[in-house]
Write a structure and sequence with these properties.
- By secondary structure, the chain is an all-alpha fold.
- It is built from 7 helices and no strands.
- Helix 1 packs across helix 3 and helix 2 packs across helix 3.
- The radius of gyration is 45 Å and the shape is elongated.
Length: 162
């Protein structure tokens, strides 16, 4: 069985004393043969010692009350709003919005005279302007023609004078 190669994670785990004894012995044997890796591990140990001494006063401070576990659990046990209240609020907002939309034109004054004509012209323009084929403006085509060749319902001129 081949041994797993020693990598950077193993070196950091050795510095932090997180390796199992068998793997720790393999890493120590690797460090005995590699002076560069041994020097890097020593620098990591010195760095860890310096960081612990720099932050020792912060570690000695008491835990703030807002981070205390009992305080956090007490805050979570506070009664929350029931789901029916949130549902009722959403329904009220929806009904208010729909009611406002339905009544937005009902409360406006009805245009009369020239204003009514302008409104009618605007509506007609909105309908007919996009039609570039002209199909909306032309009369429907009929399949049958009268014997004289004119459309049904029209009076054909007689060629005879009376």
């Amino acid at each position: 069985m081949t041994a797993r190669p020693i990598n950077e994670d193993d070196l950091h785990a050795l510095v932090d004393d997180r390796l199992d004894p068998a793997r720790g012995a393999e890493v120590e044997a690797y460090l005995a043969c590699n002076p560069d890796a041994r020097a890097r591990v020593e620098r990591l140990r010195i760095l860890g010692r310096d960081l612990r001494s720099a932050f020792a006063p912060v570690l000695a401070e008491p835990v703030p009350a807002r981070l205390n576990l009992a305080h956090i659990l007490k805050a979570r046990r506070r009664p929350r709003r029931p789901a029916w209240q949130a549902t009722a609020a959403a329904m009220l907002l929806t009904l208010g919005g729909l009611g406002g939309w339905a009544l937005h034109g009902a409360l406006a004054p009805v245009p009369a005279g020239v204003d009514a004509l302008a409104q009618e012209a605007g509506a007609s323009f909105a309908v007919y302007a996009p039609d570039r084929s002209g199909r909306l403006n032309s009369p429907p085509a009929t399949a049958t023609r009268s014997p004289a060749g004119s459309p049904p319902g029209s009076r054909a001129r007689s060629r005879c004078r009376i």
